[in-house]
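W.,

You were right to be curious about this one. When I first looked at the sequence I had no strong expectations either way, so I just let the prediction run and decided to look at it fresh. Below is the sequence, 340 residues in total, followed by the output.
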Amino acid sequence: MFTVVLDAGHGGSDPGNTGNGYLEKNIVLKVVKEIGKQLQKEEDIRVIYTRDTDVLINLWKRGEIANRSKANLFVSIHCDAHNSNAYGASTFVLGLHANKRNFEVAKRENAVISLEENYKERYKGFDPNSEESFLGLSLMQEENLDKSFLLAADIQENLTKSLKRRNRGVKQAGFVVLHQTFMPSVLVELGFLSNKNEGRFLNSKSGQQKMAKEIAKSIIKYHQQLKLNTIDLKEQSSGVIEISKSDILEEKNTKNEEVIFKIQIASSRNKIKETSYNFKGLKNVERVKVGSYYKYYYGITNSYKKAKKFLLKAKQKGYSDSFLAAFKGKNRISLSEILN
């Protein structure tokens, strides 16, 4: 089954934006339920809601629901607002802010974390008002970015061409709710409740059904594209040959003072602070610059047995493409050579 997690933003004590007296939390919940209704007509799509009633779900919990269900896709639905007469639909994927406007949208959606219990501890080191805090958010999603963009672009096209909504484009911004997920994820801003005409449209049953239908069409199309490309995707994600070879060797503990094992959890053009918050709680992460990229390593040890445990932990944290590498000094060496 292809599992889609649908996330209605805000809820409960957090109404979201209230432009023209409309409640974002109620509108997005109705749209999400209608999307789910459309998707459930497909035999091989399973739908999970982060909330299906008027309750507040913490941002980290929304991601946890998606991760625990091993979802293939995460779609979060919101409504926008502005102090001008702005209007139109936009779709976001996780990334650094391209401009001040994207940053302001992300800040507003992330502000809900202050309503969460123990939020200072859970989001330790993260400041929703600081652009620097967002630098680490995109790292986990880089491997999913192409797929996220694929879906986002199709949703945007459907909303603007089929429903004649103003096209505000596909953008990148640092949404915490997208950061928490381990799968392709998008966040849709349906339109501006602060705009009188658009707010009326989004608050109407007809408007909600139309928006939901176009988003559901994009999700179904995305799923069909994945089915057609299943073999290619498997080949692309097959990843690390060294690991599958080394797994043949059982719990062999190789200790050599000259050899160091490390778990490479990510590679990125972004220079990101090695704080545990940026790496899903993994501590003592090392950053090494190689050409124009930065490589991030975790679990540095001279014990192969410990290294395998570190690898397992990294994968459990969501770094599915992480792998074990061996070094002598600053030089990387063949893992199979050392184990043999």
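Here's what jumped out at me. The longest strand covers residues 259-268. And, maybe more interesting for your project: Residues 205-228 form the longest helix (24 residues).

Coffee later to discuss?

I.
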